[in-house]
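Quick review question:
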C-alpha cells in the first residue's frame, strides 16, 4: 500500500480511505480522530469522535456534553481496529490529553503527531517517539531562528518583575488550554506560593487540570469590582490573550503586560501587542526539536502540516528524507 492511499488531505482534513475516518477535521464529519483539545484541532459537530479520555473531557467542557453524536475513549498505547486499519494513540507532550495518532495498514505506518513538544512539562504526559514510515509534523516554529529558552527561566523573570514592582499588577496573557496551566505550574515549581488570580475564562479548564492531579495551588477569581484596584497590587493575574483588549484588563492598577508565547521570541510581535514583559514559553517544538524528532522516528518520508513548511521540507531533503507540505487549512495555532 502507498502511504498516500492510507492518509491524504481533503478539504475536511486528513482522510483515511480504508478506515473511513478523518484526523482533526476542520468540518463536521462522520468519524473523527482528535489529537488534542485546542479549538483548531477539536471541533464540535462530528457524528463520532475517538480521542483520549482527557481530550473528550476537555471538548465537553468547551462545547458542552453534546459536542458529538457518540464518543469513544482511546487508551494510550492500545490498538483499535477501524475497518482493518490499526490505530493507536501516544503522548504528544503538547497539552493535557494530547496524543499522536499512529495509523497502520498494509505494511505502512504513518504517525500524525498533531501539535507536540519535547520539553519537560509537568502538566501533561511526555512525548514518546514512535518509529514509522511517514511522520506527519507541524511546523509552527519551523525556522532555525526559533530556539525556545528554558521556560522556568522565563517564569523567574515574571517573579522578579512582580517583586520589583510591588505596586503594579502583572497581567499574563496565556491560552486557556495548556499554556495558562503550565505558567501557573511553573510559578509553583519556582516557589511562588501566593494566590494566583485567574480570569473567568480559565476557571473550568484549570479546575479540570487540578482534578486530574496537576496541582496549581490557590487560584482566585480576578474579578475587579468598584471596591478598589489596589487589591491586585503586586499580584500575578493570568487571563486569555483575548481578555487583554477588554475593559477587564484596564481596571488593574498600572498593570505590567506580559504574554507567554513562542512568538515572544520576535521582538516586533511583542511590541505590536504592547507587551512589556515577553515570556518565551511555547507548547510547540522549536527548530532543533522538530529536526531531532524527525530523525528519531526513522521515517523515510515527512509530511509537514501547518506552520513554516518550506524550511523544514528543505532540511529533510538535505538529509535525504522525502518531504512535502500538506497545505492543510484551518489550523490557527490556538496554543502557540
Ligand atoms: Zn495545539
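Suggested answer, residue by residue:
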Amino acid at each position: 500500500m502507498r502511504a498516500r492511499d492510507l492518509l491524504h488531505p481533503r478539504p475536511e482534513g486528513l482522510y483515511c480511505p480504508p478506515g473511513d475516518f478523518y484526523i482533526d477535521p476542520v468540518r463536521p464529519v462522520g468519524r473523527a480522530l482528535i489529537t488534542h483539545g485546542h479549538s483548531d484541532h477539536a471541533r464540535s459537530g462530528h457524528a463520532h469522535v475517538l480521542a483520549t479520555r482527557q481530550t473528550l473531557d476537555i471538548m465537553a467542557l468547551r462545547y458542552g456534553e453534546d459536542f458529538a453524536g457518540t464518543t469513544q475513549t482511546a487508551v494510550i498505547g492500545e490498538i483499535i481496529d477501524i475497518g482493518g486499519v490499526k490505530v493507536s494513540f501516544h503522548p504528544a507532550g503538547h497539552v493535557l490529553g494530547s496524543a499522536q495518532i499512529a495509523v497502520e495498514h498494509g505494511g505502512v505506518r504513518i504517525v500524525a503527531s498533531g501539535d507536540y513538544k519535547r520539553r519537560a512539562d509537568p502538566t501533561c504526559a511526555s512525548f514518546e517517539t514512535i518509529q514509522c514510515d511517514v511522520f506527519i509534523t507541524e511546523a509552527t516554529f519551523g525556522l532555525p531562528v526559533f530556539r525556545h529558552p528554558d521556560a522556568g527561566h522565563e517564569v523567574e523573570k515574571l517573579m522578579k518583575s512582580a517583586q520589583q514592582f510591588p505596586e503594579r499588577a502583572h497581567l499574563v496573557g496565556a491560552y486557556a488550554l495548556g499554556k495558562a496551566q503550565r505558567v501557573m505550574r511553573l510559578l509553583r515549581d519556582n516557589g511562588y506560593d501566593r494566590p494566583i488570580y485567574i480570569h473567568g475564562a480559565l476557571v473550568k479548564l484549570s479546575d479540570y487540570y487540578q482534578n486530574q492531579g496537576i496541582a496549581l495551588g490557590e487560584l482566585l477569581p480576578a474579578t475587579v469590582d468598584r471596591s478598589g484596584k489596589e487589591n491586585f497590587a503586586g499580584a500575578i493575574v493570568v487571563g486569555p490573550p483575548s481578555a487583554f483588549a477588554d475593559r477587564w484588563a484596564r481596571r488593574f492598577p498600572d498593570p505590567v503586560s506580559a504574554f507567554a508565547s513562542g512568538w515572544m521570541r520576535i521582538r516586533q510581535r511583542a511590541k505590536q501587542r504592547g507587551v512589556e514583559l515577553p515570556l518565551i514559553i511555547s507548547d510547540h517544538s522549536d527548530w532543533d526539536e522538530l529536526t531531532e524528532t524527525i530523525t528519531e522516528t526513522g521515517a523515510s518520508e515527512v509530511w509537514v502540516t501547518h506552520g513554516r513548511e518550506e524550511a523544514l521540507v528543505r532540511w529533510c531533503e538535505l538529509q535525504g528524507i522525502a518531504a512535502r507540505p500538506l497545505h492543510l487549512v484551518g489550523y490557527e495555532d490556538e496554543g502557540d
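Why it works: The longest helix spans residues 151-164. Residues 271 and 278 are 9 Å apart (CA to CA).
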